[in-house]
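Researcher: We plan to redesign the surface later, but first we want a full-length starting point. Tokens attached.
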């Protein structure tokens, strides 16, 4: 079989005339130029688009866009240009090889309708991707929660979104499966800390100590955007009284503020002799001789 195929190729080349070899050489040169030109266009488009969004970040005016949104649009536009160039280059190469591209495009249009019924999920992902981008639901760099996945958005495409949790793994989610998104990077957050005190403790004293401690920390931390507030007693538990304090922070800073406040509250309670209760167990040994 292979011998016959090879012989057919040899016979075909043998039958070629000088002008045929010249035409083949010109076609090969044209295909090479098409590939080189495509590569150059993609590289230039990356430079131009990248530079445009860099300028958006450098210029400060009311017309400039958020850096995260700029990074997202930058990646999407570059991908679109790349796919368009690839498609155009493939059509030109096929035309150079003698393929009727007009009939090919027409057949692809008819076949696309049939394929579309089997690729509804793909179409759904792409349409959802457009809505995510144009509605600006989230951008690259935002910290979001999508379903049971929580992490930083590292890439948004027309078909998928890539999210990286703090543990480091990369999760790829089809855009069509994204039903609900919680974005933690768009507005200020509420830091909330509950502290427990013993029933014997003076409640007013504990509230004053927490108020002073929170106010001192707020004066040191620029991420706290509103005066902290100790709102008072929240519950009477089995062995303790719970007092709650709140403060508004810049996006994504509430977790760090809560951790620091718990540490400072404990130190302040110890300094002022306020007991943080913990379960006690009393053991009575019975003397059988008595």
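Model: Full-length starting sequence:
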């Amino acid at each position: 079989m292979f011998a016959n195929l090879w012989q057919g190729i040899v016979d075909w080349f043998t039958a070629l005339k000088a002008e045929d070899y010249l035409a083949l050489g010109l076609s090969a040169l044209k295909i090479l130029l098409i590939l080189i030109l495509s590569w150059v266009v993609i590289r230039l488009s990356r430079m131009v688009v990248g530079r445009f969004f860099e300028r958006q970040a450098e210029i400060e005016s009311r017309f400039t866009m958020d850096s995260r949104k700029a990074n997202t649009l930058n990646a999407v536009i570059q991908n679109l240009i790349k796919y368009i160039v690839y498609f155009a280059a493939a059509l030109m190469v096929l035309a150079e090889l003698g393929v009727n591209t007009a009939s090919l495009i027409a057949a692809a249009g008819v076949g696309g309708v049939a394929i579309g019924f089997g690729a509804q999920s793909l179409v759904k992902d792409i349409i959802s991707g457009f809505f995510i981008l144009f509605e600006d639901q989230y951008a690259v760099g935002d910290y979001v929660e999508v379903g049971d996945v929580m992490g930083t958005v590292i890439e948004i495409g027309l078909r998928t979104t890539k999210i990286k949790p703090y543990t480091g793994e990369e999760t790829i989610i089809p855009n069509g499966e994204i039903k609900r998104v919680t974005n933690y990077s768009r507005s200020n957050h509420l830091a909330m800390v509950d502290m427990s005190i013993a029933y014997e403790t003076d409640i007013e004293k504990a509230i004053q100590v927490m108020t002073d401690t929170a106010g001192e920390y707020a004066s040191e931390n620029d991420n706290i955007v509103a005066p902290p507030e100790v709102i008072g007693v929240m519950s009477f538990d089995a062995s303790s009284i719970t007092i709650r304090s709140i403060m508004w922070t810049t996006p994504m800073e509430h977790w760090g503020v809560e951790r620091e406040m718990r540490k400072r509250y404990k130190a302040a309670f110890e300094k002022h002799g306020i007991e943080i209760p913990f379960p006690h167990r009393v053991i009575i040994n019975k003397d059988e001789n008595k």
